[in-house]
Amino acid sequence: MEGSVTDFKLVEKLVLENDYIIHLAAIVGVRLAMENGIEGLKVSCMGTENVLNCVAKYNKKLLAASSSAIYGKISKTPVSEDTDSIVGCSAKSSWLYSIAKLAEEHFCLAYHRELGCDVKVCRFFNAVGPNQSKSYGMVMPNFISNALSHRTLQIYGDGNQSRTFVYIEDLLDGIELVIEKGTTGEVYNIGGTEEIKIADLARKIIDITESGSDIEFIPFEKVFGPDYEETMQRMPDITKLKALGYNPQYTLEKSISSLIKHLKLRKDI
């Protein structure tokens, strides 16, 4: 079914048809959020309010997907669920996505506190999987796609920014655990624990694919314009999720190998 989470009647219909609601609707990727700021805010704020109003009205249970982007300019990792958010000023539109997801979290937790809604929140840290589109700017499928075709791998900035990655199967296991065993009104990080610099990720993918690709470094402002600020580190503390029994099966290398296998079968690389 195609539609928008900002369409209240559609949201109401879908909420009525289900017992448990998993709210994943969002503008995907920082660049799209920067280019579509109004729509991004509508989806995260108005859309989430639509979902919550229906959840409250019909006494449904909700799991809402948030993002590691809410942590903003963190200087130390790993970050736990109660680590403060430090985001940049509103003049920098790159923080719009972070603020929108943070507002979404506050909406959810306010509905829990004030109306007693059964709501849980999961913060995703750089999820990867076989059906991701490189058009959204996701770094790992982009690198692998280009490496398989021996095209240049483009790194934004100096490549010293670091990330962790969680494979979709581990992510889904985490979601299932939070639904089944998580505490209502709580937030849970879901992410990998192998931190890697983006430049090192590019080199690793070139090595694994035995690619002849070169690496090109492109300044952030050339890609995103002057209103962009980068988060240099993003790594979760998943102690809270592990207490529910979380046991991820995909290492970074296994995730890369799985994506390579799937991308080789696709025609749009």
Automatic annotation (TrEMBL):
Ranges where the NAD-dependent epimerase/dehydratase domain occurs: 2-191
Coiled-coil portions: none
Pfam family, one: Epimerase
GO MF annotation terms: NAD+ binding; UDP-glucuronate decarboxylase activity
GO BP: D-xylose metabolic process
Keyword field: Decarboxylase, Lyase, NAD
Alphabetical list of InterPro entries matching this protein: Epimerase_deHydtase, NAD(P)-bd_dom_sf, UXS-like
GO cellular component assignments: cytoplasm
Keyword Lyase in record: yes
Cofactor: NAD(+)
Source organism superkingdom: Bacteria
Keyword Electron transport assigned: no
Protein name per Swiss-Prot or TrEMBL: NAD-dependent epimerase/dehydratase family protein
